[in-house]
Amino acid sequence: MRDVAAIVGIGHTEFSKNIGRPERTLAIEAITAALDDAGLTPADVDGTVKFTLENTMEVEIARNLGIPNLRYFGDVAYGGGAGCGAIGHAAMAIAAGMADCIVVWRARNRGSGGRPWAAKGNQVGGEMQWYLPFGLSRPVDQIAMLARRHMIEYGSTPEQLAAVATTFRAHAQNNPDAMMRAPMTVEDYFASRFVSEPLRLFDCCLESDGALAIVLTSAERARDLRKPPVLVRGFAQATGPDHTVMANYFTADPLESPGHYAARDLWRNAGMSPDEIDVVQVYDAFSPLVPISLEAYGFCKPGEGGPLAASGALRVDGGSLPCNTSGGSLSEAYVHGMNLIVEGVRQLRGTSVNQVDAQTCMVTSGNGVPTSALVLRKP
Amino acid sequence: MSTARPIPDADDASAPFWQAAARHELVVQRCAACNAYRHPPRPACPSCASLEHRWVAASGRARIWSWIVAHPPVLPAFSQHAPYNVVVVELEEGVRMIGNLIDVATAEIHESMDVVVTFEDVEPGVSLPQWRRA
Question: Which of the residues A10, A150, A202, A269 has the least number of beta carbons within 10 Å of its own beta carbon?
Answer without folding.
Answer: A269
